[in-house]
Amino acid sequence: MQIPNIDVTSLYILKYLLEEKHVSNTALLLNTSQSSVSRALQKMRLFFDDELLVRTSFGFSLTPKADEIKRDISSLIINLEKLSHKNAFDPKKVAGTVRFYGLQPQVNTMMPDVVAAIRERAPNLVVSIDTSPQQHFEKLVAGDIHFSLSSHEPPKSEQSIHRKAVAQRDFRLLMNRNHPLANATLTAENLSHCHFGQISLQGEKTLSLEHKFIELGLANKKQRLSTPVQITNFSSAPNIAAQTDIIFHLPTPFAQAACHDERLLTRAVPESLQLHFSKVYLCWHKRFHDDPMCVWIRAIFDELFDSTATYS
Length: 312
Known about the structure:
Layout: H1 8-20, H2 23-30, H3 34-48, E1 53-56, E2 59-62, H4 64-84, E3 96-102, H5 104-121, E4 125-130, H6 138-142, E5 147-150, E6 161-168, E7 171-176, H7 188-191, E8 195-199, H8 210-215, E9 226-231, H9 237-243, E10 246-251, H10 252-258, E11 264-268, E12 279-285, H11 292-304
Helix pairs in contact: 1-2, 1-3, 1-4, 2-3, 5-11
């Protein structure tokens, strides 16, 4: 069997080119020149015997072969990085990228401390953080990331995901300071008549609190809670709450940070509506379980966070 000669650096550049579909953006992202990116693209076109990226009136688009390559190249690059760490791991010397996925509340609360620790101990290691709404475990399974911060359960069909609790979460209600209930005693009954914002990160169709109202006999399949606003991320919730009568049920750190806007306030969730299953987990795929860099990152989480503490 012949193993073809391949330029690993060009392959690495191609990975980002296929994601960005833009030469100058890729150069900026990788801190290299546009000419270096263009040369790498030409090498990869020859290697794969395909144009890979085709210029259109709207920029570049991927060829069918490039679409196939894109699905596999991330896993290949990460495995090459894993091999490079295998023999010896010295944080002061290690280079490369450690990739995280998490939603804004978890990332905003936990990752600043993690990034600070990594910057101090491994100054050449790049930290990549993705907070876009998506399925929490797809990128782990695909090999596109090293870690996911999530309060969700992995699919039962997926047996290759390891995880450990790193924090507890609690929630607050975010509302307009002039909301009719802003200064009232909050009960499940008076909240059942309010309007809520549905944050649907993975296509959820029901409010996270709704089953609590159902248990109390304050809602049912025919008489649902009012959710006139549905959004796919957290970022727009504060502005909507500030200008309407919509209430959002949000992780406490995110809700409290939103109250820098003087139009907003947070209220405690009534005991009868509180959720009691909200741990945050650091998740990783078995392919990285013994990787020295990833073992080192997990140790940082152990050092920084108490899995029994509530971050609020």
